[in-house]
Amino acid sequence: MAQSSDTKDVDDLCLCGRGKLHDGFTELRIRVDETLLVIKNVPARVCHLCDEAYISPDTSRQIDDVMEKYRACRLVAKPIPAGEIDLMQTA
Ligand SMILES: [Zn+2]
Q: 46: which strand partners?
């Protein structure tokens, strides 16, 4: 019954080595051709130190699905203002 999970602590640790992961949400920014697609409210395990987000395979599949629908124009994204800066051209 009382089965101890040795992997639990490892799962809760961020790759940065010091951060702990907690359930939260993240925002994904994916470039689709010339369009930048922002997917918000993505459930993820988020590091409290470095804000690195880890997405589950299930959520990852869901994102793929959304991308596919978006590419096939079966999903309309809300337009948001965006800006782009080329670091190589700011000198
Ligand atoms: Zn971290």
A: 22, 53
